[in-house]
Amino acid sequence: MRYFIGLMSGSSLDGVDAVLVEIGEGGAQFKLLASSYLPFSTDIREALLALQSRGFDEVQRVTQAANQLMVVYADCVLDCLKKAGIPSQQIIAISAHGQTVRHRPEFGYTLQINNAALLAELTDIDVIADFRSRDIAAGGQGAPLIPAFHRSAFGQLGETRVVVNIGGIGNISILRADGSTSGFDTGPGNILMDSWIMQHQSQTYDVNGAWARQGKVNRALLEHLKDDAFLRQAPPKSTGRELFHAEWLEQKLTQFNDVSPTDVQATLCALTAHTLVDAIIAYAPDVHRVFICGGGAYNTMLMDTIKLALDAQTTQKVRPHVSVDSTEVLGIAPNHVEAMGFAWLAYRYTKRLTGNLVEVTGASGERVLGALYPR
Ligand SMILES: Nc1ncnc2c1ncn2[C@@H]1O[C@H](COP(=O)(O)OP(=O)(O)O)[C@@H](O)[C@H]1O
Ligand SMILES: [Mg+2]
């Protein structure tokens, strides 16, 4: 039996998603046995958010936050084991992504704060961590790493599929009909919408996009938001909170003081949808089907906007209708996909198989990703 636990906490800073999966020999089959989700307490979220930019005594704050994060990770692991009724000895490894506090491939590093030694101590299970550094050492972006898993889980020869992951940042995987795969970060996913609703309504996110639905998209503002060097840049590319954050938005809004907060939210929802659809049209013009995962898949307003934008673009180009569904229709719930992907990367590590794709990250070669902290 090949049981793995995948732990993912992404740039949305919402909490930790965990899955306990059985991975078949060869890594082509995945069976979900249990899942768990623990939202971050306000304390942890604020500590992690503060670490996204420069500040006082970062070393102490980073290490303390990492230790606090491990307690949440361990709770998620124990919850999964309990739900599945599987003892810890039967788990081959935990995949612990850690929390990104800096992503600067242009300076040769990315930092996911983590304490794999402590997690191994708290759970008595092997922990595999630090998946991104090796790809950066090989000249890559270190991100996105999920396209290889998307190919394995969702690819279909003879049909071009795009898998869209809407976390804090948006990214797409292009699974071409001929078996080749590419992918890149497209820009903001939920980050800006989350930050705007927190500022105006003290909510961590816009549930089902209900607030955005009340507003009207401001076309001039949308164009101004889209006027950004990262959005224009050709892949390979990856980004994070160092680019798309509250100050980026504040700066962009200086000339748009008269737009109501509700209309800004509607426009931010359109920004996420349009940047994703523009990327799909530009880099996967032969797409047949689109599948959405990540927390953004639960934002029904965002899903509707993506469908409309894609329909508008595809009709203009006189192409057949492109279907848009959640990954649920392929058997994996949107909120489990990334944690499963990291469980799969841990499986790859245990077999000393490579995890990155050079077409995606731009690395000089495929590499085994991760580092092991034995139980
Ligand atoms: N029901 C929902 N309605 C709207 N947005 C949602 C909903 N559920 C989750 N989200 C969004 O998804 C985010 C979490 O997505 P997730 O895939 O965990 O991102 P990350 O990988 O960055 O942590 C939340 O911050 C929120 O913006
Ligand atoms: Mg999350």
Account of the 3D structure:
By secondary structure, the protein is an alpha/beta fold. It folds into two domains: 3-141 and 336-373, ATPase, nucleotide binding domain (Nucleotidyltransferase, domain 5, 2-Layer Sandwich), CATH 3.30.420; 147-330, ATPase, nucleotide binding domain (Nucleotidyltransferase, domain 5, 2-Layer Sandwich), CATH 3.30.420.40. It is 40% helix and 21% strand. The protein is built from 14 helices and 13 strands. The chain has helices spanning 42-50, 58-84, 116-123, 133-137, 147-154, 191-201, 210-214, 219-226, 229-232, 246-253, 261-283, 300-316, 337-350, 358-361, and strands spanning 3-8, 15-23, 30-39, 91-96, 99-104, 109-113, 127-129, 161-166, 169-175, 181-188, 289-293, 323-326, 371-373. The strands form three sheets. It has a six-stranded mixed beta sheet with strand order 3-2-1-4-7-13, sandwiched between helices. It has a five-stranded mixed beta sheet with strand order 10-9-8-11-12, with helices on both faces. Strands 5-6 form a two-stranded antiparallel sheet. β5 and β6 form a beta hairpin. The radius of gyration is 20 Å and the shape is globular. The model has no long low-confidence stretch (mean pLDDT 96). It binds adenosine-5'-diphosphate and magnesium ion (MG). Magnesium ion is lined by residues 9-10, 12, 14-15, 17.
